[in-house]
Amino acid sequence: MPALKTPADVAAAVWKPVTLRAAAALAFGALSIFWPAPDASTVAYCLALFLIVSAKAVWDFAKAPVIPDSARGLLVAPAAVWLLAAVALVVSPGTATVGFAGGLAFILSGALELAAWFRSRRDLLPARDLAITGPVSIGAGAGLLGGLGLGLDAHGFFGIAGGGAIITGVFLLIAGLGYRFDARSTDARR
Predict the structure, then answer these.
(1) pTM (2 d.p.)
(2) DSSP3 helix / strand / coil % (the chain, rounded to 5)
């Protein structure tokens, strides 16, 4: 089976938002690894910042002209969910908020990304990324909600959210750089 190549106009439109989301996820994931003893407010504020930057990246992805209208609303919705969760995290920075608001935000956004993938998988090649990021978000969200019942501390919640972010970040960085290459290689041939 031949490898699918993203059309140059599509790749040019999506590589920056995909790479921005990857960079945010990797930065957040690195913080979760290397911050030895964060308190609850630090975790809440870091998660809020990560959600805000991710929302911006997904918003930019959704408003790209190559995105089918059938998927646009499903792609904007995770950005709104993340922004609401970020507000909750800033207003009430604690482990319960990280577990509950963060967990719900990841689960809802993951489900919406899967729905967007399902709806646009035939029309938009970059939608295949959503088939990975959606389940990873759902898993991280389930871990955060499950952590509430286990009585995890701030570091535990940071690790769960950061682990999901690292998986998402590595995957999206590879995708974003691939889109950049596809956009650039077509430009060079002209």
Answers:
(1) 0.91
(2) 85, 0, 15
